[in-house]
Every structure is written in structure tokens, then in C-alpha cells.
Amino acid sequence: MYYDALRTFITVAETKNFTKTAEKLHISQPSVSLHIKNLEKEFQTELFVRTPKQFHITPTGDLLYHRARQIVQIYEQTKQDILAHHHAIQGELKVGASFTIGEYILPGLLVDLQKQFPNLELQITIGNTEEIVKSVRDLKVDVGLIEGQTNEKELTVEPFKEDRLCIVAGTDHPLARKDKVTIHDLQNQIWITREIGSGTRAYMDHVLRSLGIKVKAKHSISSSQGIKEFIIEGTGLSLLSASVIDRDIKEQNLSIIKLDGHPFKRTLSCIYSPIMLQKQNVQMFRNKLLQRFEQENLI
């Protein structure tokens, strides 16, 4: 069984360093070298090119890397399934979520899961949509929740919630005092947005472009909380999910700028590699996710 060799190979491919791999896996560096040498002998190919100035994976090494991740995932999944008693939900569940979902929508579901399945160990990774898609594709997380779009043909994409977005400003912003706001009012304003790779950023750019809104300046901040703090101080406008601003609106820290006739909606989606649906924990999470928001009549 080449499980240990494949695990070592995956780590080398990701760290690009034999010494770091040895430290991470708690094995000796000669053991790392032996694992790689055995795999190269088994597959009759060179997996890495190493010189004093460079270290990179070969084309056949890259092919093995993606297959090796699948093999190791199947092995660990099988081990988890065998150890499960009476079909109990236990062991690990790795969920990747984009910032809006991970910080404002997912926590409620996770609390319910922890109450219902106390032996379930939740590992949550939060990043922008682009990062979460990559983690799902590389099988670094079991399932992902994104607010943007993905064209990854190897992944299954299932909508689970319709998300409403609002133009927001600080309560002292001039537009916050107007009952009706037009597209003309939104021209040449300062906008605060998320970083490139974020689903919220992509949606805002689409809205500004489709409405023909000219921007005076655009500043990016890599968290929704950071954006809120910025505009609460009175600088700029933003377009944020209703879930993100709900508490701030109630506490009168932010104001919604109403643009009549222009609702802003997008779809939040659950994504996973089809092979992951064989995992009992993933099946459970997917079902609970869809049931929760179906009950709220949001999909």
C-alpha cells in the first residue's frame, strides 16, 4: 500500500521543500526522499525537477498529484465510514465558506448541527469565493458554500439561498437623508468594496457597470466588517448582503439607500466534488442546508 508515500508526495508538491515536508509529517528527510524515489520507480517517471536554483513538479508529477489527492481522500473516507458505529454522524466535516456566508449565515446552522451531532468535529475555512472553489476542487475541504459563480465543470453546484443585497451608507452620508435616490445621485461617489476574487466584489462591479454608474474612487477591503467600519465613519457607499448589515441597520449605524425599481439579488450555492457525496457527513450537511433554507422559503 502506497498510502504513506502518496501522502508524502502530496505534501512535497504543496510545500516544494523536502525539509518542510519531513517536519510537517514528523518523519526523517531520508524517509521523504525514499517515498518519492519509490513512487518514481513505481510509475517509471520523474516527479520533481530539483536544481540549486529551482524546484518544480513535472507534468506527470502534476497528474499524479491530483489523482493522489483523490486516492488519499477515498482511503480516509473509507476509514471514517468503517469506524462509524450504527450510522452515527461523527468524525470530521471540513466546510469552506466565502466571507459573507461563513461570518453571517453559516454559524446558525453549525450551532444546530453541533447540538444534534455532538460527536461531529467541524473544521471551517473562510476565504473569498475564488479561494473556496480552489479548496473544493483540490479536495482540501469536503464541501464549499459560495456567493459568486464558478465554471468548474468537475464540481456539482446547488443553489441553496437567494441573497438580497442593499446599497448602504453611514447615517451622516448626504444620500442617507434622501427619501428617493436615483442613478444620477449615485454618480461620482466613493465606493468601498471587497477584494478581487470575492463574489460580493464581482456582483458590485456588475451592478455598477450595468447601471452605468461612474465611480469617483473605489477602495477595497478584504472583509465585510472592515467595509462597514469604514462607511460608518461617513466615507463612501457599499453594496452588502442584508445578512451582513441587519444588526447595524437595527442599531442605526448604517442606512439603506433605496434605489426604486432596482432590486439586487444573487444566488448562494453549495459546491462539492461528486466523489464527496459518498461521505455520510457530506450527505447530512447538504440535506440539512437545503432543508433549513427551504423552510425559510428562500430557494
Notes on the structure:
There is one protein chain. The protein is an alpha/beta fold. It has helices at residues 3-15, 18-25, 29-43, 59-83, 99-116, 129-137, 199-210, 224-232, 242-250, 280-295, and strands spanning 48-50, 55-57, 91-98, 120-127, 143-146, 156-170, 189-193, 215-220, 237-241, 254-257, 264-272. The strands form 3 sheets. Strands 3, 4, 5, 6, 9, 10 and 11 form a 7-stranded mixed sheet that branches. Strands 1-2 form a two-stranded antiparallel ribbon. The protein is elongated and about 75 Å long. The two termini are 45 Å apart.
Describe, in short, the structure shown.
The chain has 299 residues and is α/β, with parallel strands linked by helices. The chain has helices at 3-15, 18-25, 29-43, 59-83, 99-116, 129-137, 199-210, 224-232, 242-250, 280-295; strands spanning 48-50, 55-57, 91-98, 120-127, 143-146, 156-170, 189-193, 215-220, 237-241, 254-257, 264-272.
